[in-house]
Amino acid sequence: MAKLVECIPNFSLSKEKNEAGYNALIEVAKSVPGCILFDAQTDGNHNRSVFTLLGSPEAVEEVAFRLAKKAMELIDMNRHVGEHSRMGATDVIPFVPTMDVTVEECVEMSKRLGKRMWEELKIPSFLYEDSATVPERRNLATCRKGQFEGMPEKLLQPEWAPDFGERKIHPTAGITAIGARPPLVAFNVNLATSDVQIAKKIAKVIRASSGGFKACKAMGFMLEDRGIAQVSMNMVNYEVTSLPVVYEMIRALAERYGTHIVGSELVGLAPAKALLDCAEFYLKLENFDYKNQVMEYHLIDMLGE
Amino acid sequence: MAKLVECIPNFSLSKEKNEAGYNALIEVAKSVPGCILFDAQTDGNHNRSVFTLLGSPEAVEEVAFRLAKKAMELIDMNRHVGEHSRMGATDVIPFVPTMDVTVEECVEMSKRLGKRMWEELKIPSFLYEDSATVPERRNLATCRKGQFEGMPEKLLQPEWAPDFGERKIHPTAGITAIGARPPLVAFNVNLATSDVQIAKKIAKVIRASSGGFKACKAMGFMLEDRGIAQVSMNMVNYEVTSLPVVYEMIRALAERYGTHIVGSELVGLAPAKALLDCAEFYLKLENFDYKNQVMEYHLIDMLGE
To answer: CATH: 1.25.40.10, 3.30.70.790, 3.30.990.10, 3.40.50.720. Which one for A4-180?
Structure first.
């Protein structure tokens, strides 16, 4: 069976502000056989681009390195302006196990890449998420706190030596976070109310940071155009906190606050399993062996041979 | 994107009664590159084997022909004994569109195969299901009525001329039904009651033949080992009658009869879409674009290129 890894590097550069640079990155992303550029998003306000790569572990790791090298050549962080927090030309490089690959293998990929980026490019890095060497570094936001401008000082603090590299940033490319993480599912639930406080209260109950489900991040928002409140979530590990479980909790809480769910949306991509969990949950499927019973997994096996 | 067709030929031969013949068929099933033998079931009581082939339309069609030829060489229907109804050495050959293939293309496959089986093997055939030339031939059971022994007489009736071939069976291989059909999902729902009459009543309400859902066949059974009643279904087109809709109807009817659903089971394989429908239904997903939002479809696209 084919081994497949997803990689979603974030660059501090946008097509809107630097089209030639953006195109150069796109070209590099397609430069290694066995790795495809699956998706590319650019945001002028954030002055940031997010690529989605998919391919064999070896090919993806090589492309990630080449992209970090090209981004270093293209971007001077001293001159970077954008709304999104950032600390490096290549700001973050997550590896996500996708097919027949373990999290451990992705952790190894992140470590090899960090070592090589230091040795060949002199770009230091933090290992984050499942690659983190200490609990404080699991969270990307904690690693990035202080941003590019505050990093020289932060790296001198005893607990903030980079995992690879010396206690100073690359002068123009800054520092990069690299790590393995499970696939993330962006899932929003819409409520039949214009009271955003209800969405905020529900978000507080369900999210990990205030005592809720371990693998759920949540916020309450107002959808201004529709005049309704939304619970917006990042499900950071659907194997730990499943979509139907969080949905049923929101349903119960919405009822508690005198409203109900009118709909939901999946933002971007999700692995089939995150959604097949709904079939198992709601149909009360007994002994459901999804890898053997869902045709498409066999197709992938067959095609990947 | 790779075009893929599934083909599930049924042979009047079992490993239990003729191991050498069965092995010869297995060998033929694997004889064309681009077509794999996905699954092989054999039943000694039925004296029947069911193969599942998967591959490109051209490869699958060629393998289906070679199998029909080999089955003709191996099987003399005049000497065949088995519990299952049958009319030919190769009893039935369904083609199921699986990826990037239309039902119409599968209908064309069935017609080319029927023509070739007559021209090269002198085996006549009926076109059934979506390939049927008249409504009475859609149903396989109607085509097969009379079985091998009654076929010589049946073919002389004005309305039962074969779609390919003359009004007489092949002396040893009989006649074959060939047709395109949607993927079938076998889905059973278990009730918290030992009263099989409730399962029978529910089955009667939901199945097409007594006025229920168009693409649902259903029967009520007793699961003797568990002491509970089961509604056993063949969902013959989940795009027409979806799993969550039939499940919710059973739930309402079970409640009407004073019981409830304790679980369900998926028997064998199902296409992911049949189960993703549950995510869409129960999570009230808005604007769900499964082909673009479910990762695995992109993997299949990528691997199939």
So the answer is: 3.30.990.10
